[in-house]
Amino acid sequence: GLADALLQRGADVSLKSSDGATALSLAAGIGREKLVELALRHGVEINQRCGSSSGTMLMYAAYFNRPAVVLRLLRAGADTKLRAVNGHSALQFAKEQGHAACVEAFRQ
Length: 108
What we know:
It holds the Pfam family Ank_2. The chain is an all-alpha fold. Helices cover about 50% and strands about 0% of the residues.
């Protein structure tokens, strides 16, 4: 697809929008598991911080209730100990939002 073609041609996935979001943090937050997988295959930094919250893809996926993305990121080695500027971890975001499926993904 288009994303694969862009990545093969060297698209910089670490670029940030004016509010600090990356394409991958947005992909994780809206549950685009295939885009996250594609980015991981192309060597994206899995724990890259972005946005004013200094969140990671794992935090965005947990906060927005994307259990399949959470599980994929965990299996790829996402750091569960990192904290956003408010001191919350990805697991805390999932618990705080009442996202049981995401919390369960952390237990697998």
